From TrEMBL:
Its main location: cytoplasm. Residues 201-370 form the Methyltransferase small domain. Keywords: Cytoplasm, Methyltransferase, rRNA processing, S-adenosyl-L-methionine, Transferase. It comes from Pseudomonas indica. Specifically methylates the guanine in position 1835 (m2G1835) of 23S rRNA. The gene is rlmG. Its EC number is 2.1.1.174. This is Ribosomal RNA large subunit methyltransferase G.
Amino acid sequence: MPLLTSPFAQLDLIRQPEQPNDPLQAFDAADEYLLSQLHAQALPADTRVLVLNDSFGALAASLAAQMQVTSNGDSHLAHLALAKNLARNGLPVDAVRFVPASEIPAGPFDRVLIRVPKTLALLEEQLIRLHGQLAPDAQVVAGAMIKHLPRAAGDLLEKYVGPVQASLAVKKARLLQVTPEARPAPVSPYPSRYRLEQPRLELLNHANLFCREGLDIGTRAFLPHLPTDLGDTRVADLGCGNGVIGIVCALANPNARLTLVDESYMAVQSARENWQAALGDRPADIRADDGLASQPTDSLDLVLCNPPFHQQQVVGDFLAWRMFQQAKAALAKGGELRIVGNRHLGYHIKLKRLFGNVEQVAATPKFVILGARKRN
């Protein structure tokens, strides 16, 4: 894979999760453009830089040896990538302070570098949180590949930070340079909430949640087909989002032992708050993780999953396949993985290849609910 070469460093970077012969690299021209623009300012070594949404640590790792860097983002995989890439390039892991998106990074910051995220609600919340965190004469620069840079991103920067100047395009990347101005303290519209009728729940959703304004149709198809009469079964909601699948399962199975896992810090924050609201102090393991990568083998009896089919802007079934593999490793003999998926994704073929068996539990015109048992 090519090295990221910038005026600050030359780095060998990997993506997370790792794939054999991965054709995708861990940086792009927008990262290079942001670093080049920052270097042109000849900033002192004690410059305090906040990096937002650094997918695999390319920006933070490049600056780690020369500036005071804080990285803030919503992806646990991005956090893992940053730690691995720092170590991979001979830099101490604590050279960058990482703050999950469930927390607010504390300034003041002299420079803010933003990779524009796919979910603009996340960008909006991050810009709201910048209020009061910028040093005098601070600058904010957002970057993206042009094909992933919506006009609304510039509108949000203008609304919450200050006037925006768009750069010329370089290698199909563009920067939005922002001059901070005094703004009234903004009121965040996040988290949002929606109600579920059966069972009756109000669900809270922080800014980066998928289907933040209402239950997604895949989960809606899945909920009526969650198992009941589970006794003290050990159950995981894999890719839990706001926790709705795990919570509904827990309400129907008062003795079941639940684990809720997601790689999004805001998802985990939402799931914890929703669990508390619905189930009070009932114990549950709710955590940000790389799926079930750290789950002990043979430690679960049932895994429930509505798998994602994209990682940031990249669409594919790699993450789903990896989650299925993790589920099989974590399940005890006789345990079941039960999923919902779009019919056209062909998950039954993958499950049969992995488990040797697959059963169609239910179906709608658009979705199938599938179950696969671990035989050995």
